[in-house]
Structure formats: structure tokens, C-alpha cells
Amino acid sequence: MAQLKIGDITVTALSDGRMSFQTTNMFPETPESLWDAYRDRFPEAFNAQGFLINIGVFHLASGGEQVLVDTGLGPHGAAQGRPGPPELIDDMRRKHVSPDEIDSVFLTHLHGDHVGWNMTHDEDGSRPTFPNARYLLQKADWGHFTDEKFLDDGRRDAAQLTYLPLPDMGVLDLIEGETNIAPGLDAYPTPGHTPGHQSMLISSRGERALIIGDVVGSPMHISEPDHVYRPDVDKEMGRKSRHEALDLAEANGMTVIGSHMTRPGWGRLIRWEGRRYWQAI
Ligand SMILES: [Zn+2]
What we know:
This protein is α+β, with helices and mostly antiparallel strands.
């Protein structure tokens, strides 16, 4: 099931492959044994190395507009723990999503596994992969990820391949705070994972969903929201946004859609013995 309807809005799940990480790489202060019970509950989210996570990308069709949420790890990501080749462009073709028809590329944040296909580089030069789209990002993320000291710390080449040229290409729109993107689609800031990390509220005909990006990094993270999570730039703010977003979704019975949830990437929050769990749908 690669499609979900939220009222009149159609969500199509796309993927750019998977990545795997040692559990201690993600949660450096958490004992390995904590994850044992989760291996039984979410076998598809583990491999011999540790966590096995989807690189999720979502296509939204609403009121004649097409929005892509994130662009995956891209063709340059082999060094970042991806066991297989990139898949996004093939997956889009298979699901009849045309890069030319995307109106907005909504970037939850600028980590490498969310911006990989922003641009295409070949013998003709470099250009946006989605030529007719505005690329939408929170201003706070742009500030953080273009800081000279940040780039000088070995990150400039990857940034150049994926996001630094976007302003010169005339396709980047920096937004601030809650912002309407398309009918029923609104940016919802969830800072902490990165300074300008944004989620997306989906609302149509009384149905609601929340795309949470990297507010949680795996299904297990929903049940264990308080552990020190290494990828969070601001650990305390990340924890706060995680609680707020999951509370919002649970209180309103919203479908939750996550970049690194098991495919296709959507589910509901359930309670079992006082703890919150992810249940794929
Ligand atoms: Zn990510």
C-alpha cells in the first residue's frame, strides 16, 4: 500500500532506499539491551548492524498542486551506511510521479538524507532536479547549515552538491514559522533536531495527519523519546518538540507519517501499558 488518503489529499510513499546504523551511534548513552524487546516488535527495523531505517520521501497531491516532502539521500550517499543503491528516481517513475510536475519541494531540514536529490549534476552542468518547483525551507535551518565554520568542518562539498547553489538557481524560498504550502498543507515548526526543522500538518474534510520528518528517527524512538539522540543539534529542544508533536498527534487521533518509519511510513500512535507505540497502518 503506497497511497494514503487524508480527506481529499493523496499521499504517496516513496523511498530512496534504506540506511543502517549501530544503535550506540544513534543513542550513545543508551544500553544496547534496551532495544532487545523492540527487535521482536519491529523486526523489519533491525539488521545485524543495528537499526535498519527507511529513507522516506512523500508526494502529496492537494487541490491540483503537487508537493514533495524531502529528496532522500541521493546518488552520493553510499558512504553514509546505505546497503543498496539509491532508489528515489526509479520509485517516482514506478509510481507515476513526474519531477517536472512538482510545484513545491518541502525540505523538513538540511541533513544529507533529506536533500540528496535536490540537484542533478551531469555533463550539462548542475540544475534543480525538480525544475518547476519552489524549494521551501525554514530560515533558521539555512542559517545553521550555511554557517562558514559549519561548512569548513568538512561539509562544504556535500553542501555544494545538494543545497548551497539553490539561491543562485533562483528556486529557494526561506519561510518562517507556520506557513501555508498548498490547500490543507501547513508547515509546523518542530525545532531541535535541527534549528529550523519543520513538520507538516495535513488537513482535509475533518481528517488530519502529521508528517514528522526526523522528530523521531525510528519506530522505537516513539516509545523512547527521552534518550540522548546524537543527531539532534539541540538535544533538549529536540526532546521538547518530540513530546509536543507526538502529544498533538495522539490527542487528535492524527495519522503520523515519518521519514524513517518502516515503509510505507505511516501509522498511528497506540498506548500499551502506559507507553506509546508506533503501529503501522
Ligand atoms: Zn533523517
